[in-house]
Amino acid sequence: MAMAVVIESLTKTYGIGQSRITAIDQVSLSFPAGSFTAVMGPSGSGKSTLLQCAAGLDRPDSGKVSIGGAELSGLSETALTRLRRDRVGFVFQSFNLMPALTAAQNVELPLRLAGRKADQKAVQAALATVGLGDRAGHRPSELSGGQQQRVAIARALVTTPQVLFADEPTGALDTRTSRDVLRLLSGMVTEHQQTIIMVTHDPMAAAYADRVIFLADGRVTDTLARPTAEAVAAHMARLEVSADDPASLAC
After folding, report:
1. What's this model's pTM, rounded to 2 decimal places?
2. Distance separating alpha carbons of residues 153 and 233, to the nearest angstrom
3. pLDDT digits (tens, 9 = 90+) for 109-132
């Protein structure tokens, strides 16, 4: 099975001296192409740091990250920027849409920033993929929160990335809208073989993934295949308890 992202012995620290914090501690993981993985953990567990290092947004202190077989550590900043632009898509909790631009203009932004001519067929196809083919001319203020997040997803898809990284993509949405967005992401995996790595705190959101990876204190504590919201919530409850009683992880 081909791997979209491979992480080997990844370590990332912040600060110096006694204030030094190890956010990620010798983590090794593989993410198969065409899979949907959720990353969960208590606050401060390192999940967002893991996502940022895996996506090439931050450089680790040690270890390796490869995307589509390309190792990131040996790349210059220019080459790393090009790889992120060509192979990676990003979706975040805050939609980060330009309010003065239409949905179509927001979607084509990555192409223009890369100095590429905006392919209007590709822009329309990306909007159609997220169910907004008839909203291309609408500005963000004319769209619901869920529709704005769909535009953000279309913007991430327009460059046909190998991997889509999502950091709390439903955190600003209500439950019903969240489910719509999660069904969309899940459908992208099953219908288009998109690889998605998503950080979330929500067991319901994690249940849409093929696999959940649990972090605590910068280390992988467990993985769960074919998750249910109930099973994910039980794992998270155990991790929350362990934050107050580390010995409980061994129980």
Report:
1. 0.91
2. 27
3. 988 887 888 789 999 999 999 999
